[in-house]
């Protein structure tokens, strides 16, 4: 039983000293670390110090796997076959591990971190200089890598969007030019037919010019009607040629868009093992037009065409007049 305020306060102080625990951390790499330790000796003679060293390599690997498991890394980013690496990982651990691509990438990140750490140890021994490499630096390194991967992925998606727009313009222009070409052919046939009729009727009227005036009047009216028809046909032909001249700049613009496609863009497309839906939808009609076929090409056919050195030239010099009717219907 506590009888006085002093005893209550003494008991309170004792309980606080026994039960209150304050835990705080300090980073040796901080420039103020030495000043704080020198100005606060109680940190060493009145506290329990627990020094934490570097994480183990297994710990670094697990952290790297956790932060990189959602990255979509292409197989061709590795010098070592992913399938071979997968078999090695399974044989070595006798159980299925994480995605082999994530495993290889994580090991690479850990190797870079540990190599920098070992180099600093060598510098400390030889030049008496040392830069602290802490787990915080390892986490920052992974964060920079993930951000850079996302940035480059966004750039590639933007380039793919430009390629899709160029292909769409090229396809629309080709369709318009084809339609106008068909109309022009039809108008030319009609013009030739009408011109033949005019010539025949004019020859007949010339032979009968000596006949009665009534026949001459009939011939004159017929000639005027035919001349009127000839003018109308010429106007239609001029209109068709005018429409065709308006379509040609669009075709040229589409070709300029395709010229802007770089070799890196093409290499990215041909390296897709399982392409995104947008890439697949954009490339299938292009390959069908190039091969003049009336069926949907599979992705192997697309890759085979894209791998050709003449792929870009084939698109730019595509013969729009040589498309078969079945291919047009399929497209």
The gist of it:
The protein is 73% helix and 0% strand. It has 331 residues and is mainly α. The protein is rod-shaped.
Q: Would you mind describing this structure in some detail?
A:
With 331 residues, the chain is mainly alpha-helical. The protein folds into three domains: 57-152, Histone Acetyltransferase, Chain A (Up-down Bundle); 167-259, Helix Hairpins (Orthogonal Bundle), CATH 1.10.287; 262-331, no CATH class. Helix content is 73%, strand content 0%. The radius of gyration is 41 Å and the shape is rod-shaped. Residues 91-96 have low confidence and may be disordered.
Write the layout of secondary structure elements.
Blueprint: H1 5-19, H2 33-39, H3 42-45, H4 57-68, H5 82-93, H6 100-127, H7 135-207, H8 213-259, H9 263-270, H10 277-291, H11 299-306, H12 311-316, H13 325-330
Helix pairs in contact: 4-6, 4-7, 7-8, 7-10, 9-11, 10-11
Task: State the main characteristics.
rod-shaped; Histone Acetyltransferase, Chain A
**Count of domains:** 3
Query: What gyration radius follows from the Cα positions, in whole Å?
Result: 41 Å
**Relative strand content:** under 5%
Task: Tell me the helix content.
Answer: over 70%
Ends apart, CA distance between termini: 97 Å
Report the biggest beta sheet as strand number plus sense, adding barrel if it closes.
Answer: none
Backbone structural class: mainly alpha
């Amino acid at each position: 039983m506590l009888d006085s305020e002093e005893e209550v306060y003494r008991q309170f102080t004792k309980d606080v000293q026994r039960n209150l625990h304050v835990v705080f951390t300090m980073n040796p790499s901080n420039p103020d670390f030495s000043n704080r330790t020198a100005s606060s000796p109680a940190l060493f003679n009145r506290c329990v110090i627990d020094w934490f060293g570097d994480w183990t390599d297994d710990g670094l690997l697990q952290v790297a796997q956790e932060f990189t498991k959602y990255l979509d890394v292409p197989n061709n980013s590795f010098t070592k076959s992913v399938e071979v690496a997968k078999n090695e990982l399974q044989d070595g651990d006798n159980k299925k591990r994480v995605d082999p691509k994530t495993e290889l990438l994580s090991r690479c990140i850990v190797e870079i971190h540990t190599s920098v750490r070992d180099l600093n140890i060598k510098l400390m021994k030889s030049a008496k200089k040392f830069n602290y490499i802490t787990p915080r630096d390892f986490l920052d390194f992974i964060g920079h890598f993930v951000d850079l991967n996302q940035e480059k992925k966004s750039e590639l998606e933007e380039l793919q969007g430009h390629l899709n727009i160029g292909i769409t313009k090229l396809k629309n222009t080709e369709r318009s030019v084809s339609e106008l070409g068909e109309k022009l052919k039809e108008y030319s046939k009609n013009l030739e037919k009408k011109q033949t009729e005019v010539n025949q009727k004019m020859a007949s009227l010339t032979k009968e010019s000596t006949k009665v005036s009534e026949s001459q009047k009939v011939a004159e009216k017929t000639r005027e009607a035919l001349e009127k028809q000839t003018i109308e046909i010429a106007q239609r032909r001029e209109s068709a040629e005018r429409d065709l001249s308006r379509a040609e700049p669009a075709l040229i613009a589409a070709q300029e868009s395709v010229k802007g496609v770089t070799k890196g863009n093409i290499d990215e497309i041909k390296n897709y093992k399982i392409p995104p839906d947008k890439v697949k939808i954009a490339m299938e009609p292009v390959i069908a037009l190039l091969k003049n076929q009336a069926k949907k090409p599979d992705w192997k056919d697309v890759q085979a065409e894209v791998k050709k050195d003449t792929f870009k030239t084939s698109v730019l010099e595509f013969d729009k007049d040589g498309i078969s009717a079945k291919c047009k219907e399929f497209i």
